[in-house]
Amino acid sequence: MNLFLNAFLLTLTVLTTGSISSQKTDLELHLKKGETYKMKMEMGNIVDQEMMGNKVHIDQKITTETELKVEDILANGNYLIGQTYKRVAMNVSSNGQSMSFDTDIKDAASPLASLNDLKGASIKYELSPKGDISNVTGIDEILKNAGALQAKTISGIIDKDKLAGAFSYIPKNKIKEGDSYTKTIKLKEAMGIDVTTKYTVETLTKEKASIKLSSDIEFKSDKPIEQNGMKMRMSGHGTQSGMYRIDMKTGMPQSADTDQDINMTVMMKNPQTGKDMAIPMKIKSLVKLSVTKR
Predict the structure, then answer these.
(1) pLDDT of residue 113
(2) Whole-Å CA distances, 18 to 6, 12, 29, 109, 233
(3) Rounded to an integer, what distance in angstroms lies between the CA atom of residue 26 and that of residue 248?
(4) Does position 3 have pLDDT exceeding 70, yes or no?
(5) What string of H, E and C letters represents the secondary structure of 98-145?
(6) What is the mean pLDDT of the chain?
(7) Taking phi first (over 0 means left), then psi (-120 to 50 degrees means alpha), and beta for anything else, what does residue 95 get?
(8) pLDDT tens across 61-77, in order?
(9) pTM of the complete model
(10) Were both Cys, which of 3, 43, 177, 285 would link to 62 (CB 3.0–4.6 Å)?
(11) Beta strands 208-220 and 230-247: pairing type?
(12) Which CATH number fits domain 23-293: 2.30.230.10, 3.40.920.10, 3.30.930.10, 3.90.180.10?
C-alpha cells in the first residue's frame, strides 16, 4: 500500500510541476538587473532575379552577434536594455564572384567596410515584460557618425521597426497549449513591409514553451526608396514558418528557426533607356537564432 501511495504521489508531483498544458499562464519577461544575454543570428539567403534579360543568382550568408544587458529595472516595471553589436559577418557569391567581410577582421578595402562602424556600437531602449519596446536611443547617433553612404548599409541592420519585432512572440494574454494569437509588425523603413504572424503554442511547461509561427509578408511601399541614385518601388508577397523555443523562467528565447519564401518585383527606370522596367525576384531564406545567458 505504501509503495502504491508513493508511486501515486510521485506521479502527482510530476503532473503538477511539469506540464501546464491545460492551464492558462502568462508568458512574459522576468529579467534581473545586471543579466547579460548573447544573441547570435545566422541568415542564409538565396536570391534569383532577372534584370535586363540577364539572370542573376546570389548566395548570401549573414551573421550578427549582439549582447543585451539589463542595465536597470525602472519604476514602471520595465527594463532598461543596453544592446551592443559585437560582430557582423557577411559572405556573398554571385555568378562566379564572391565577397566576404567580418568586423572581427576589419578589412578597410572591402566594399562592406562601412559595417566596421557597427562593432562596439550600442543603443538603449525600454522593454516591457510583454515585449513592447519604447524610448529607443542611440540609432540616430550611429547613423550620423557613419556618414550618408555607410548609414544606408547600417540602417538595413538597425532600425526601430526591427527592434519592435524582436519580442513579438510574447502574447498580450495568458496562454495554454493549442492557443493561437496574431500580431502584425510594420517595417516602414524596410520598403513598407507588413508582417502578420500567427503564433500557436505547441508545448507548454513551467520550464519551457515551443511556439510555432506562420507569417504572411506583404510589401506595401507608399513611396519609392532610393539606392545608388536610382528610385525603386517594391511589390510582392511572402510567407514564413518556424518555431520559437522559450525559457519560461525568463521569457527569453533559447533558440528559433524560420524558413522564408518571398516573390517580389522591383520597379525602376532602365538606366540605359529611361523606360520603366520590372525586375522579378525570388528569395529563399533560412534564419537561425540562438540565445545564451552569460
Answers:
(1) 72
(2) 18, 10, 20, 55, 51
(3) 9
(4) no
(5) EEEEECCCCCCCCCCHHHHHHCCCEEEEEECCCCCEEEEECHHHHHHH
(6) 85
(7) left
(8) 999 999 999 999 999 99
(9) 0.84
(10) 43
(11) antiparallel
(12) 2.30.230.10
The CA distance from 182 to 168, in Å, is 10
E strand spans, the chain: 36-51, 54-73, 79-94, 97-102, 122-127, 133-137, 180-187, 193-204, 208-220, 225-227, 230-247, 253-269, 276-293
Residue 187, Cβ neighbours under 10 Å: how many?
19
* Segment holding 15, helix H or strand E: helix 2-17
Domain ranges of the chain: 23-293
Pairing type for strands 36-51 and 193-204 reads: unpaired
- 185 band by pLDDT with thresholds 50, 70 and 90: confident
pLDDT of residue 291: 96
Q: What is the percentage of the chain residues whose pLDDT exceeds 90?
A: 53
Q: How many CB atoms lie within 10 A of CB 114?
A: 17
